[in-house]
Amino acid sequence: MLSSKGLTVVDVYQGWCGPCKPAVSLFQKLRLEVGPDLLHFALAEADSLDVLNKYRGRCEPTFLFYAIKDEALSDEDGCLSRGKDGRADEDVVSSEKTCTLAIIKPDAVVHGKADEIMVKIQEAGFDILTSEERTMTEAEMRLFYQHRAGEEAFEKLVRHMCSGPSHLLILTRTEGAEDVVTAWRDFMGPCDPHVARREQPESLRAQYGTEMPCNAVHGSRDREDANKELALLFPNFRFTDTETPQVPNTQVEPGLLSLPPDPHLRGQ
């Protein structure tokens, strides 16, 4: 992650206090505004990482800033390990193909349909590059659906998406096939499951959705939204297409900004 182009900000915290939630939301918002290739944000618990031992007892919070410098990757504290080829080990997913985000929503997961839906996705010609099961936070979903903030059903949608675990997938398709974003939206069917059953009975929402917002699956509206949503929910995802090229290994230089404690943010 530290080898990515742009600025990387790490919020170092301790378990007794927890990360600064307002800062998390702020950096997620900024990341969407300036672009996923220019700003990266991560959380690190000092008590769990020996390399952060020197920050224990004074994380209120502490922010570490890493910026690109030149062609060689280095780290004065040894935070990054190198493989046999001299490159830093990274926990990233990368793809040279056009990708989109797919979410199997909590209503489908709680009814045990996630595995069945993933099989249907693959049978329909999609490749699942990676999948992750986790429960979304309210802050994530408010930011994720911020374009719908003025709608009457916004609060209900946010509550639903935070109500239990979802399956997050990165999808792509075979070279030369239909654009993956459009193909995935067509395969999902209309947003309203009742409409889907009437107009596209073979679609996923027709088969697994019940009523809004419990329509089983989510898909990005277009390529731009797909890139933004992937950047928000898969911050280590690395694009290698012409729109957001893969970044080569580079040197990062750490900087430290220790903010004074704010009683209003402690434990938030």
UniProtKB/TrEMBL annotation:
Record-linked SMART domains: NDK (SM00562)
Gene Ontology molecular function, alphabetical: nucleoside diphosphate kinase activity
Domain of life: Eukaryota
Residue span of region Disordered: 241-268
Domain Nucleoside diphosphate kinase-like: 97-241
Regions crossing the membrane: none
Record's compositionally biased regions (Polar residues): 242-252
Gene Ontology biological-process annotations: CTP biosynthetic process; GTP biosynthetic process; UTP biosynthetic process
Signal peptide segment: none
SUPFAM superfamilies for the chain: Nucleoside diphosphate kinase, NDK, Thioredoxin-like
Family: Belongs to the NDK family.
This protein's name: NME/NM23 family member 9
Native source species: Oryctolagus cuniculus (Rabbit)
